[in-house]
Amino acid sequence: MRFSVLAGFCLLSMSGFSQTIEVLNSGIKSSLRGLSVLNDNVIWTSGSGGTVGRSIDGGKTWEWNKVPGFEKREFRDIEAFDENTAIVIAIAEPGNILKTTDGGRSWKTVFTDTTKGVFMDAMDFADAKNGIVIGDPINDEVYLLTTKDGGETWDKYRGSPIKTSKGEAFFAASGTNIILHAKNRFTAISGGMISRLITQDNAVELPMAKGKETTGAYSLAIYKDQAVVVGGNYTADTSSQGNCVMFKLSQPPAFRKPAVPPHGYRSGVEFITGGQLICCGTSGVDVSNDLGMHWTLISKDSYNVVQRSKAGRTVILAGDGKIAKLVY
Known about the structure:
- It is a single chain.
- By secondary structure, the protein is mainly beta.
- Helix content is 0%, strand content 47%.
- The protein has no helices and 27 strands.
């Protein structure tokens, strides 16, 4: 859900700007990969073991729940609408989408897909009504679902089928490999044997790491017409080879590589301001003050996902057993 997420953010000067990571909660028995930061107070997260967490005081205290019947499932993405309403997707067979309207105390299954090979990776909402889910290819076609009623009902994507290449898929690493724009237009990224930038109209190969199941594009962030993709190779998480690319949302995009890339595989990226970025992965956290051209390592701690508040300035990170925030 990206309701004018970064509108009005002021650009911060590069001089005198420092960032640190402050751990808010640790010891959580879940690998957290879903994250939705509504404002400076309301934060939702999700992960393995059917776990959902919610804070309504900016991360000072947390409520943790395991959704009954889903204790062995993984919720790789979550979208929150307010402090009481949120949606999670459960990966792998059967593919499930669940919704709560009472702060996570109870959940109802709003969609189930028992198709062999179904694997939902991520979702995004353009507004309070219109959302999209992307999953690994089935029969060599991108798996897409859409909703027009805030996730109450879901339908198979009605646009032209999008074909995939052999060994191409989508990573359920942080729930950030697809962005839904207005009028049901979307931008997505793939990885694996090939990595591509995919829209409803076409697909273009990305100049990123490729050739293995674990290589390629993992996360996408967009501010106005500026886009940044991070990834690399999950099994070589300290390698910076092919782990970042920048471009404008023009056709065809002119890809640019960083002069100083992030310091390893990265599974999450987010704009802090119009010119400032943060990315994270299992080998650390980097920031950039120049639209991704130069990256500085600020932490070697492992995190899976990073999100900026949709209506505020808080930046939250989540990983295996912990949640943190960017102090800046």
